[in-house]
Each structure stands twice: as C-alpha cells, then as structure tokens.
Design brief:
The complex is a heterodimer of chains A (1026) and B (458).
Chain A: H1 2-19, E1 26-34, E2 45-48, E3 56-57, E4 63-69, E5 73-77, E6 84-87, E7 96-97, E8 109-112, E9 115-118, E10 126-129, E11 152-156, E12 166-170, E13 183-186, E14 189-190, E15 201-207, H2 210-213, E16 224-229, E17 235-250, H3 259-271, H4 281-289, H5 301-305, E18 310-322, E19 326-337, H6 345-348, E20 355-368, E21 373-389, H7 393-402, H8 428-434, E22 437-454, E23 462-483, E24 486-489, E25 501-505, E26 508-534, E27 537-552, E28 566-579, E29 583-594, E30 603-614, H9 619-624, E31 628-642, E32 654-657, E33 668-669, E34 678-679, E35 682-686, E36 695-708, E37 713-730, E38 746-767, E39 770-787, E40 807-810, E41 813-816, H10 820-825, E42 828-829, E43 839-841, E44 849-850, E45 856-861, E46 866-876, E47 879-889, E48 892-894, H11 913-917, E49 952-954, E50 957-968, H12 971-974, E51 981-995, E52 1015-1025
Parallel strand pairs in A: 1-7, 13-16, 42-44
Antiparallel strand pairs in A: 1-4, 2-3, 2-5, 5-6, 8-9, 10-15, 11-12, 13-14, 15-16, 17-18, 17-52, 18-19, 19-20, 20-21, 21-22, 22-23, 23-26, 24-25, 26-27, 27-28, 28-29, 29-30, 30-31, 31-36, 32-35, 33-34, 36-37, 37-38, 38-39, 39-46, 40-45, 41-43, 46-47, 47-50, 48-49, 50-51, 51-52
Helix pairs in contact in A: 3-4
Chain B: H1 2-16, E1 38-43, E2 46-47, E3 52-58, E4 67-71, E5 74-81, E6 85-89, E7 97-104, E8 110-122, E9 126-132, E10 146-147, E11 156-162, E12 167-172, E13 176-181, E14 186-192, E15 201-206, E16 212-217, E17 227-233, E18 242-246, E19 253-255, E20 262-265, E21 271-278, E22 283-291, E23 301-304, E24 310-315, E25 318-325, E26 330-331, E27 335-339, E28 359-366, E29 377-383, E30 388-392, E31 398-403, E32 419-420, E33 430-436, E34 441-446, E35 452-457
Parallel strand pairs in B: 2-8
Antiparallel strand pairs in B: 1-3, 3-6, 4-5, 4-7, 5-6, 7-8, 9-32, 9-35, 10-14, 11-12, 12-13, 13-14, 15-16, 16-17, 17-18, 19-20, 20-21, 21-22, 23-24, 24-25, 25-26, 25-27, 28-29, 29-30, 30-31, 33-34, 34-35
The chains are: A mainly beta (1026), B mainly beta (458).
Chain lengths: 1026, 458
C-alpha cells in the first residue's frame, strides 16, 4: 500500500514541476477574510487560479499572505460560503468579505439519462443520493443501498469477503421470465457496481419510472442506476486520504447443542418412534466426561473453525486539481477484507482463509482543446483477488453445520485425520485448512473518451457530445487442491481396546484446475443537445444514437452461436418544455434494436410522456405561503422494455439425433421385437419461436416533490403502477400429440402487475450550535402475476396467476395431533404415517384428505417487499454523530434443512439450541399441540418436514445499520500542517438487529442458515484533506 | 498513520470487549503435583471381556500414558482419564484378581500406587472374536501363508472343520483351498485353481470319515466332458487332486452321512443329481433327481443333516428342505422351508414368513435343549448381505444369532467389531461357517472383512 502512495506522490510531483514554470515578477499579497458580520474566518483556502500548489489558509484572525504574480486571480473558498475570485491589480492588500452560500432545492442538480438537470425541472421519478450518506465498511457500495435509496429493495445473502455484495432491485421484482437486475451505468457505460470505489463517486441517481428510463428503451424496464465519477475542479490541488480498519464479527451465529444433549436427543428421536436408541447411559457418560475423545467426542465445529472476528483494512487517496485548460482527478484505493475461518497459516505456508483484496485506480482528465471543445478521458481499473479454502463454500458450510458434535473427532489420538467421506461430508478442518486453496482474481479495465463540442456558433444552446468507451473484464480461477486420507473408526474398539479404522477417503495429492474467461464491451454514442429560453418558455431537446456490443469467452468452446457478439442499437430522444419554472412537459423515446430476435421483431419504439406542475412557483402560493419553496406534482406514463434473455436467437431451430441403440423407441427401428436394428432419428432440440421478443413494461408514476422553509423540509413521494407484459416463457403445456418431444416453443405470454410507492423525507434544523438532520426513506412494492403459462386447475389457489412472483406456497398447519383419536377424526394425511405430536394440516378443498391440492399461497415472498430506513445526523462544532436504522418487511420464508428438522438426515446435521430450549413436543412430558417443534423422528419425516405454515417465518427485521461518531480537528490546529480537514471517526455497522427470527440473520434470506454470516463491524478511521 | 490507526483500533476493541475479555480458564492438563493423588474405587466389580472399567479418584491427571491399570497382573489398556476418572476396557484372557492402579509422574516414576482390597471377578461369556486374517489399515489383504499374525485371505467364502487335526479347510472361491491349522496357528495353501484344471472351484465337502475332501468346480459346461467333482485324500495330505466325476457345471456336493451316496447340483435348471456307478462307463455317472425352485438356472448349496434324514438347499434368500428317501437312497423334491424364493429382507419369523438376504453356507449344531427330541440340531447359517449369523430351529423358527450389534447413528449394520453376539458384534458379509462340536466353537469367514471370526465362550 505504502508503495502505491509513494508512486502516486512522485507522479504528482512531476506534474507540479511541469506546471511550475512562470517567469513573471513575484509579488506578495496579503489581506484579511471576514464574513458579513466582520468576524474573521480562519481556514479559508486562498489559491492562485490556474496555478499549481496548495495555496494558503487564513489564520485565526482571518489573515493570509501569499506569493504570486500580478494580474492573476485569487480564489477564496470555504465550506458554507460562496467562492469569491479577485483579480490582483496594483493593490497588494486584498480584504475579502465572504457571503454565506444558500442551499436551495431549486438549485439542486439531478443527474438524469440526458445529463445533469435542475431538480425543479425534473418530471420523472429520479432518486438522488448524497454519496456521503452511503456508508459501508465492506468492499461493495451495494451494501449501503438498502434503506438509503428510495426505490431500491436490497438484501445481502453472504458475508464472505469478495462475495458479500447485496442483491438489489429497483422497485422490486416485477417479472419472472427474464432478468430482474437494474441497468447500472457508470459514466454512461454499463458497468458493475460492486468494484467501484465509494470515494470516486460524484453522483448517484436511480431512474425509476418510464419517463426517466424510456431513453434506454428495451433495457430500462428494471430501472437504471446512474453513477458519475468525480472529475477535477480548477483551482487548488486537493488531496484526500482516508484509512480505516474494521473489526468484523457476526450479526448472528447459529448456536448448536453440545454433544451430551445431542446424543440424548438422538436417543429420544429413536425411542419416541419405537426404535432402539443408539447411546447407552454409559455412552452418554463417556461423552459428558470426555473420557474417550476418539469414539465419543464432543466437538463444537462452528466454534472451532470460525474465529471471533476478522479485520478489514481500507485506504484511499485521491488528488484533484487543474486549471482552465485541463483538470484531473486521480484516485487509488485498496481494501483487504479478512476471512473468518480459523486457519492455521503456519501449518501450510500458504493462506487458505477467505480473503478479498482489491486495488482500484481511476484517472479522469478533462482537457479544453479549444474554447468550445472539451475532451474528457477516463481510465479506471480494478484488480480483485479472492482467496478461498480449497473446500468449496457449499461444502464447508454443509460440513460445518452438518457434522454433528459426537460422530468424529478432528483427528484421532494416533494422528489419523477423521472423515466421514469426501466433499461436504469431510471433516471441516480438512475442508478449511487441509484442502489447498482457491484463488480467483478479476481484472477490469474501463476506458472512456468523451468529446463535448459547444455549437453556440451554429445556434445558441446547441451542443454535441460523442462518447466512446471499451471495457475489458477478465476473470481467472486457480484451484490447488489436495486432501489427506480420511479415516473413521468403528463404533467400538477391538477386545484389546484398540481403535479399528476404516478409510473413508483416499489421499489426494496436489492437483490443479484453472479457468479463465473474459468479456469485452464496446460502446459508441453520439448526442445532440439543444436548450433555449424564449421569454418564460424553456425549450430543450436531446437526440441520441447509441450502439453497443458485448462479447464474452465464457467456456463455450466451439459453439458458434455463443461466440457471436450481443449487439444493441438505439436511437433515442427527449424534448422538454418548461414555463416559468412552473409547468413542465417532457417527452422521451427510445427506438431500440436487438440482434437477438427474428427480423420484424428486432426493433421497437418505447415512448414516454411526463409532466410536472410546481405549485410552489404559482403567485398565489408565493404571496401567501412563501415558505413553500417547491411543491411539485409529477405524472409520467410510458413504455420500456426488458431484453435480458439467456437464450440466444430463440427464432432459430436446432436439431439433434436420437441415439437409436440406446432406446429403440427413439429413431427408426428396422428390426423386430427383441431384435432391434435401429438408426438414429432427427428431432427438434429447440423449436423456432420466431415471434419472441422482449417483455414490455407499461409504467405510470405519480409523484410529489416538496421543499419547505428553504429546504429545511424536503422530500419526494412516488406511487407507481407498472404492468409487465409479454414475459418470456417456455410453453410447457403443449399437448404431447403435437410431437415436439419436450422441445417446447417459447413465447411472450406472462404478465405481472406491480404497484407500490417509494419516498424520502428530510428534515434539517439548527438548534443553537447543533445541526440536526433527519432522513427517512421507504420503498414498498407488491406484485401480482396476471398471466402465466400454466395448466388449468380446479383450485384457483393452485395457479400462479393472482399471486406474487416467487410466492411462498405451503400447507396450513393446525398444530400437532393430540392423540390417536384426533388422528382418526381428522382428514387422512397422505404424506406418510402420523403419530400424536406430528403436524396436522388443514383440508383446504374439503375432500377428506390432505394432499398437494391443499397447498396454498401463504406468507409473502422470500425477497423483501418493503425496505425502509431512517437516519439522524447531528453536528456540533467539530463533533458529528449519526445513526442509521434500516428495516425490511413484507417477506417470509420457510425454514428447512437438517439443522431445523432434527435428525432428518439421520446423524447428519447439528441441532439448533433453539430446538432444545423451545416449547417442543415431548412424549409424556410436553404434549402441547401448539408446541414449536413436532415429535422427534430419526431419518426424516415426510409428514412433518414439508413447507407449511408451521415452518413459515417472517423475515421482518429492523437493524441499526450504521452508527458513526466523528471528530474534526479544529482548523486552527491543523492548518499549521497545511491540512485542510482532519477527521477521526468510529463507525459501527449492523450493531443491533431486531427481529422475531433469531436463528440466523433474517436478511440473508437463507432457508437453512448454511451461509457465511453477515458481518457486524467496528471501524476506526481517519480522513484528511490537504 | 496506519500504525496509529491500528493502535487506536486495538484500544477500542479492548474497551468494547472489556467485559468479554475474561482470561481463558486455565485448564489443568495434568495432575497438580502439589496435591496428592487419590484413588478411591473401581466399577464394575465383575464383568466379561470388553467390559468398560472405571477407576474413581482425585487428581489422577489426564495423560493416559502415565497411568497403568492391571487386573490380576493382566494389564488393561487405558483409554481415557479425566482427573477424577480413569476409563479402561477389560481385555481378553483376563482372570479374576486384584486391581492395581499406578500413576506415574513426569519423570516416569510412580507417584501413586494403589491395590484395591476388593477383587475384580472376571466372567466368561459367549462372544465373537477373531481367529486369523491380516488386513492392513487400508482394508487390503492378500493370500499370505504363515502364522496367524501374518496370514491373510482374499475371499474366504466357504469353510469346513476337520476335527481330527483341529483345522479348517477354507475355500476362496475361484482361487484356492487353504488349510488353517488351529493348533499350530499356521495357514497354508492346499490346492490352487490351476490344479486339476479347475475352472473356478466353488465349495468342498468332507466325506463321512473325514478322510476325503471333495471339491466342486464350476466348469461352465452343459456337457459331461469335464471334471465337476474332484477329491483329495488325507493320506496324500489333501494335496493331490483326483477326478471324481465328469459332469455339467456344479456348485456344491454332499455326501450322505449314512448311505455315503454323493449328491450334487448343477446350474442348468437348478437340478440336483445323484451319482452312481455306471458299469458302461466303468466309472461314476449321474442322474437328475429333480429341479430346485421350478426350472430356473440357479446356484444352490447342499447341507445334509448329520442323521441323513434331510438336506437343506440354500439359494438366494430361501431355504429349501428335501427329505431323504431311505429306501430309494435318494433326496426327494424339496419344499420351501424358510424365506421365499426371489424375495429378500431381514425378518426373524417362522418359516416362509422369515426373510433373508443372501444365503451361502450353513452348519448343523446340536442343541442340548432338544435332547431326546426327533431332531436335536439347529441350523446356523450366514446371511451374507444382512451381515449376521441366523439360526433355524427344526420347527422352522428363524432368529438372528449374532451380528448387527453396536447400533450406531449412521444406521450401519456391517463392520468389524468383536464382542457380545447381538449387542456389540458386527460382521461384514459373513459367508462361510463351520462348527467344532468338541470345543463348541463356531467359525465364520467373511468376504469383506477377510477374516475368520469365532463365536465361543471366552
């Protein structure tokens, strides 16, 4: 890390020398900077314009001295004040009065699909986020989205370094056929959000409705996220540095019962079903006393192989500056996320922990070639290295949670490694520390050039923008794998007290597998902007032509079709009209083409119209309710598409031959019964579906933007109503008589309606010296399948139509059977024999038996349909403190797996302590029909262990997502060191989680908890600006 | 700067976890040398081989290499110790006697020695043990002759007990016939498959006087041009093979204990033949008496009752019974006696309600409880895939005699565990079974464990 900083400094130094040549006569300028009350302002930055260097700060009395030349501009800037520029003439004493800057919602800039736009003129639904409120100690900014960004639903599934990014959806999931992910554009190019360095982001907007995304046409239906990275500003050089160190623990770690309890429960599971128990009292005593750690061990695998915590280190450094002719922004950052596995590095000489390291760099240079021509060049890249244990993620968690405490030790007393088999059944110690390691690295290079030509000489307000970019992404993987031989001892010793071993797995000497794949994206865009004001009428227009292609080399070998580029072509435009900042009308369209569909279905037109009325600007409001700065009603309507489709060229048919020797019924048989003489026959592999095209969303959005009392109260609220039609599906219910042999055609048949709202509100108030800001966001989305390709059902609740996408479905549990009489009096349950204490289900259709026809949609979906967050930021002198709570709701999931269903896979699977401590059904002791767990069973129970309301859990939670306390050192202290800003901070994330579900982290959306737990982190860091 | 943060961070973490930063409990990994070692009691006071034996006391330490326990001079293997308890197992050939406990110090010299006033009483019990069969830690073995410590088997499928020399004839199917001399503790090879042009030797039978060993070959032929049964003689140390009968492929033969008539079977139609002297041939010829189990090609084995009253045929999961016609000196067409043809399972029940997996060899064992009754013998047989030894009473009652012990959570029934017949012992594909009536020892050979096990009173 140090090395990189030094190199960067050196490079910077070279720049300084190049620019640092000036041969005019130097003069010394001095003066005093005060505010309007004639109070001196210390720490104001005084810089000579268009000259390199850091400038000087004012001292405690507001005085400054600076050496420069005559006829240059001095720039005075300070946070919270308007920047002033003064020309040095003959007078070498320049006193300046700074004016406080007024923040106003009217001047707020929103980045939209066609560039920055004043917030007041925006007619579509766009959420903009102050990037400084996005906080995460992890490597991915996606983890900061939930509860911070109105309109985004997100969840994080895993805490594994390098794989710990969140999944997110703009306004929820509204299709089941194609992709649901939003389009992410970084500096106008489609790029991943995960690798971006948070400090590089200038603006972050989410385009939600049709009018905001119509310009993206067939790619915009799932919403668009726009990120612009920072660019250099003219004026003084600013150097920003940040270092932070985090200690990561876990939000929830599943707790399992210990060995003696496990053995006792196992005996109960056997005896309660009239089977012989496995452990005698003597055996139980041996487990308890630990007298025979070979045959009667007691091992807490989770505790053994998960450390208490791991550290993450992060550092970033960036410079920006420049002058009138060129400006630059250069940044570099580094993150090292440590893994939570308990590995003994010294043992191997290599690291088998789950680590992730990433290096990022970015250079944005803007150059004014002529007075009216600006060229912007951006080069960015990242190298992410993920290190993993040689056992795969799934195997490790399968084994950690499956390996019960009493079956095998880690090693037998004679040094043999214990194992119950290969892969996931192996010893967790072997999987984590002895199985070699996996190295994944991903290298991304992103390059873009923008040419901006002002065409005022043709017509005032006319501008041309041309963009070209290409990205290359490469992913590489090497797995170096080996394992020791694994042994399992017989259940008892031989008559001399020696262990008898069986080898479960033979030794694997070092092997290696490797793979690599890459992709290339190319992008070309031309844009024509026109804006003019005629009196009170503001007119604007944009025309845009885009073409892009993507080709990847993901192990498709000789497959010609997969090797073909994916190409899109788009002609888009927007026309805007505004009157007196009051009335706005906006029309935009995208005319899109994709090569993936048949001719005649390749192009489509996606129009959107929107309008806004800013009531706040009406004279009757201005006169009577002057505090109302903005009260803007918006409405938009339009169509956007979603062309994400895994199938290439669905309009092409493909054929295959049946191997007649394998099955005489396939192909042609020229023999006789029992003396086959077959020839292969030709059949459809894929039938041509030549009318298939993208799905189309028809979106309505009604919104309100407010700003009261000089933006002390601000907010936005949007209601949306979207219908997704033409969802791509395979027609699975074509009669067999058609003779397609499972090569079913595909068509645009599905339809989903989703409705909901999202909003954000902000309150800011100053009480004495304390600044308070409160923020809140809320996103709610509910969808309903209107139509899906499915067969007729007598029971309406059996169909997909009428329910949510990914709706949970299960039986309704009525509690447990009280006794055999209860079983006799109840409808017959067809899922195996039942005993008292087994789950009793409701006969929904009243046919006297419980079967799959009684399965109902219950609960919601496993994905959250409601995400909200609220934050409080306070500031007092140098101290700042903020808390951010985030919650999710309207989601539920079934819990299952061997930790939840005790002994469902025999002795494979640990048992949650929750099971032991809860009110569970015990024969003769607690025959409560409302118990939390049914009668135990050994080896699975087909009646009890199936999705039903009994196992349905709400994944609603509210968590203290971040808490941050910072202290900014007083200017007077740090200015001596030429430091502009120096802040120390502590941040905690996920410190508290409130949820009814306590077995594992409810956010992970895991039905069995077998995943790398989410991190609870404590971070210390500092930022400094020179 | 980085260091600075690091220190700050550590400080903070320490503060955060101050309450949780309890010092790790110092575990006393051994004895406390400053305290005396106390040895109080032992339990149980009596027991058989493999009994778990506990010594109670205080400050005993947990280093088992420092603890010696003996009963009547026979040292026990100490398995675990936990300060106040020592866990050992009673080995074979223990006798009743005084219980002595020695706890050594780090220097190897005893720090405590205790002899209990009360004696331990060693009990005898019928248990499963191991006679011979060297298998390495990987489960591999090979045909190796020599002493019991070094000898190994490859596929011991069939066994005969030869009482005159107290030895076993072990047939490794398709490979060789071995001799296990129990007195001398030696294993040797008698006959190999290549001798006498055996295609794939199958089973063997002793003659009524134990002086002739008949060996049956699966010659694969449906004609009488090849040797089906050969014999060897005690006078030639059972080493020279002579042709006995040229016939179709055969799997088993049986000599009638009284009439000395030879019966054997064939694959073709599951036929059972009787051998007779054919004057035309000037040698032995055969005649098919009946077919077992309809007209299906099958392998059966034949087991004559010691009185010659009837024979059992074993095939798949089924036991057929064929009574002997004393006048015609012929076996008669069999009935299904236990189990069902083509049906497999593991059920102890009466006759055809019982289920077996795969049956290969059985042996008649006199049951003193039946003294004076018409039939005084139980039939013990190996149920190969159920990994157990089953027993059929004369009335057809089927029960499990040994195996499938040590119930474990993985649901496994097979394994290699000695000990109590049903509670502990496990077999892995027991196949051959022989009985030493004089010493009352059952010998069992296993295909997968490749060992010869014993069931006897220890």
């Amino acid at each position: 890390m140090k090395k990189y900083i030094i190199i960067l400094l050196w490079v910077c130094g070279c720049f300084c020398q190049v620019f640092g040549q000036n041969d005019a006569v130097p003069v010394t300028v001095r003066g005093r900077v005060v505010d309007k009350n004639n109070e001196p302002i210390p720490g104001v930055s005084v810089v000579v314009k268009d000259q390199p260097g850091l400038g000087v700060p004012t001292d405690t009395e507001g005085k400054y001295t600076i050496k420069t030349n005559k006829y240059r501009w001095l720039v005075f800037s300070f946070v919270g004040f308007e920047t002033r520029e003064v020309l040095i003439k003959d007078d070498l004493v320049i006193n300046v009065v700074m004016k406080e800057s007024k923040s106003s919602a009217l001047n707020e800039i929103v980045v939209t699909a066609t560039g920055p736009q004043k917030k007041v003129t925006v007619t579509g639904a766009v959420s903009t986020i102050d990037v400084s409120t996005l906080k995460t100690p992890s490597s991915s900014i996606t983890n900061a989205l939930a509860g911070n960004v109105a309109g985004v639903l997100a969840l994080q599934r895993s805490g594994q370094p390098g794989s710990n990014s969140s999944e997110f959806w703009v306004r929820g999931i509204s299709t089941f056929g194609a992709g649901t992910a939003a389009l992410v554009l970084v500096d106008g190019f489609e790029r991943s959000l995960n690798e971006i360095n948070i400090e590089d982001i200038q603006s972050f907007s989410v385009l939600k409705d049709a009018s905001a995304t119509a310009i993206y046409g067939s790619r915009g239906a799932n919403g668009v996220i726009l990120i612009n990275t920072k660019r250099g500003k003219d004026g003084r050089v600013a150097i920003n540095g940040k270092v932070e160190t985090s200690y990561n623990t876990r939000t929830f770690t599943p707790e399992f019962v210990g060995g003696p309890k496990y053995a006792q429960l196992m005996n109960e599971a056997r005896s309660t079903r009239n089977q012989t128990s496995f452990y005698s009292d003597d055996d139980l005593a041996l487990i308890r006393d630990g007298l025979d750690p070979d045959l009667f061990p007691d091992i807490n695998w989770m505790k053994m192989f998960l450390k208490d915590g791991a550290t993450t280190k992060r550092g970033s450094l960036n410079f920006d500056g420049g002058g009138a002719t060129a400006r630059y922004f250069v940044s570099g950052s580094y993150i090292d996320e440590g893994g939570m596995y308990n590995v003994d590095d010294a043992l191997n000489g290599y690291n088998s922990n789950a680590n992730y390291k990433r290096w990022n760099y970015r250079t944005n240079v803007d150059m004014n070639l002529t007075k009216s021509t600006v060229v912007r060049v951006g080069v960015a890249g990242s190298l992410g290295k993920q290190n993993l244990p040689g056992g795969t993620y799934d195997e490790i968690w399968y084994s950690l949670m499956g390996q019960n405490p009493i079956s095998i030790p880690i090693k037998y007393s004679d040094g043999k490694v214990a194992s119950r088999g290969g892969a996931g059944r192996n010893n967790p110690w072997t999987l984590i520390t002895q199985q070699g390691y996996i190295e994944n690295w991903e290298n991304k290079i992103q390059t873009n050039v923008t040419l901006e030509q002002n065409l005022d000489f043709v017509a005032k307000g006319l501008r041309f923008l041309g963009r070209y970019g290409y990205d290359t992404n490469n992913r590489n993987n090497i797995r170096r794998m080996k394992w020791p031989e694994g042994w399992e001892a017989e259940r008892l010793r031989d008559s001399n007290g020696n262990l008898i071993f069986q080898r479960r797995i033979t030794e694997q000497l070092l092997t290696q597998t490797s793979s690599a794949d890459g992709e290339r994206l190319e992008f070309l865009q031309g844009e024509m902007h026109y804006a003019t004001n005629i009196g009170n009428h503001n007119l604007g227009g944009v025309l845009q032509y885009t073409q892009e292609k993507r080709v990847n080399t993901t192990n498709f070998g000789g497959d010609l079709i997969q090797g073909i580029d994916r190409r899109n072509q788009r002609f888009a435009g927007r026309a805007t009209y505004g009157y007196k900042s009051r009335y706005f009308v906006d029309f935009s369209f995208g005319y899109n083409g994709s090569e993936n569909f048949a001719r005649g279905h390749q192009f489509d037109f996606f129009p959107a119209v929107s309008g806004a009325w800013n009531i706040g600007e009406e004279s009757f409001i201005k006169e009577n309710l002057s505090w109302m700065n903005m009260f803007k009603l918006r409405y938009s309507y339009g169509k956007v598409g979603n062309d994400y489709m895994p199938t290439r060229f669905p309009y092409l048919a493909s054929f295959k031959t049946y191997n007649a020797t394998g099955d005489p019924n396939k192909g042609y048989n020229w023999g006789d019964i029992e003396s086959n003489f077959g020839f292969p026959g030709l059949t459809y592999e894929n039938i041509a579906s030549n009318t298939v095209t993208w799905e189309v969303a028809t979106k309505h959005n009604l919104g309100l933007d407010i700003s009261f009392f000089n933006d002390k109260i601000g907010g936005a609220l949007d209601y949306f109503h979207e219908q997704r039609d033409g969802i791509y599906m395979t027609r699975n219910f074509v009669p067999a008589s058609v003779g397609l042999q499972a090569a079913n055609p595909r068509a645009n048949v599905g339809s989903v309606l989703s409705k909901g709202f999202d909003g954000q509100i902000k309150l800011a108030q100053k009480v004495g010296n304390v600044n308070f800001t409160m923020r809140g966001t809320l996103t709610y989305s509910k969808n309903e399948i209107l139509e899906a390709d499915e067969q007729f059902s007598n029971y309406q609740y059996n169909t997909q139509a009428g329910f949510r996408v990914n709706q949970n479905r299960g039986l309704i549990a009525l509690g447990l059977f009280r006794d055999y009489e209860d079983i006799r009096d109840s409808p017959i349950q067809t899922y195996g024999a039942v005993m008292p204490g087994d789950i009793k289900y409701k006969d929904i259709n009243g046919d006297g038996k419980i079967d799959d026809n009684d399965i109902l949609p219950i609960g919601a979906t496993a994905y959250p349909n409601l995400v909200y967050g609220f934050a409080l930021v306070t500031q007092w002198k140098g101290f700042d403190f903020n808390v951010h709570f985030q919650g999710a709701g309207k989601s539920s999931f079934f819990i299952d797996g061997y930790t939840v269903y005790p002994f469902s896979q025999g002795d494979w699977g640990n048992i949650l302590t929750d099971f032991d401590q809860s009110n569970r059904w015990v024969l003769g002791q607690n025959e409560d029909v409302n118990a939390a767990y049914p009668r135990l069973s050994y080896g699975g129970n087909t009646n009890n262990y199936r999705p039903s309301s009994y196992w349905l859990r709400e994944s609603t939670y509210l968590r203290l997502k971040t808490i941050e306390a910072g202290y900014t050192l007083p200017k007077s202290l740090i200015n001596k060191f030429h430091i502009n800003n120096f802040r120390l901070f502590f941040m905690g994330t996920n410190l508290l989680t409130f949820s009814k579900f306590k077995l594992w982290d409810p956010e992970m959306n895991s039905s069995n908890g077998q995943a790398y737990p989410l991190a609870k982190t404590f971070t210390l860091g500092l930022t400094a600006t020179l | 700067m980085n260091h600075f943060t690091k220190h700050l961070f550590h400080l903070l973490i320490c503060l955060l976890f101050l309450s949780g930063c309890k010092e790790d409990e110092v575990k006393n990994n051994g004895r406390d040398p400053s305290q005396p070692v106390v040895i109080n009691d032992f339990s149980p006071k009596e027991g058989a081989v493999r009994t778990r034996f506990y010594i109670y006391g205080k400050n005993l330490g947990n280093d088992i290499s420092k603890i010696k326990v003996s009963i009547g001079g026979r040292e026990l293997s100490v398995i675990g110790a936990s300060g106040d308890k020592i866990y050992c197992v009673i080995p074979r050939q223990t006798s009743s006697g005084e219980v002595k406990v020695v706890v050594n110090g780090d220097d190897g010299r005893p720090v405590a020695e205790h002899i209990f006033t009360e004696q331990f009483n060693y009990e005898t019990r019928t248990t499963v043990g191991t006679l011979v069969g060297k298998v390495d830690v990987y489960g591999n073995s090979a045909v190796v002759n020599g002493t019991f410590d070094e000898a190994g088997f490859n596929d011991p499928t069939w066994m005969l007990f030869e009482p005159n020399t107290n030895s076993l004839f072990v047939v490794e199917r398709g490979q060789l016939v071995r001799k296990v001399d129990i007195n001398e503790k030696q294993v040797s090879t008698l006959i190999t498959n290549g001798q006498a042009s055996f295609k794939s030797l199958q089973t063997a039978t002793m003659s009524f006087d134990n002086d002739t060993l008949f060996i049956v070959d699966d010659n694969g032929q449906n004609n009488k041009n090849f040797v089906a049964i050969a014999y060897t003689l005690r006078t030639e140390n059972f080493r020279r093979v002579h042709p006995y009968l040229y016939d179709r492929t055969s799997y088993a033969c049986a000599h009638h204990p009284i009439d000395h008539v030879m019966f054997f079977n064939t694959w073709w139609g599951g036929g059972v033949m009787k051998a007779f002297y054919d004057p035309v041939l000037g040698g032995l010829n055969s005649r098919e008496l009946f077919r077992v189990g309809g007209n299906n090609d099958m392998k059966t084995t034949i087991h004559f009752h010691p009185t010659g009253k009837y024979a059992y045929f074993l095939e798949g999961g089924c036991v057929y019974k064929s009574t002997y016609n004393w006048t015609a000196k012929e076996l008669t067409s069999p009935i299904v006696f236990a189990g069902q043809p083509g049906v497999y399972g593991d059920i102890d029940a009466i006759g055809t309600s019982a289920r077996f997996s795969f049956l290969y060899q059985g042996v008649f064992v006199k049951n003193p409880a039946y003294a004076g009754q018409e039939d005084e013998y139980d039939f013990y047989l190996c149920d190969v895939n159920n990994h157990s030894v089953r027993v059929i009473s004369p009335t057809g009652e089927v029960s499990t005699y040994a195996g499938k012990g040590s119930p474990s959570s993985d649901g496994k029934k097979e394994g290699y565990i000695d000990g109590d017949l049903r509670k502990e012992a496990r077999f892995n594909q027991p196949s051959g079974i022989a009985y030493d009536a004089g010493r009352q020892i059952l010998y069992i050979s296993e295909k997968v464990n490749r060992r010869i096990r014993t069931i006897s009173v220890e």
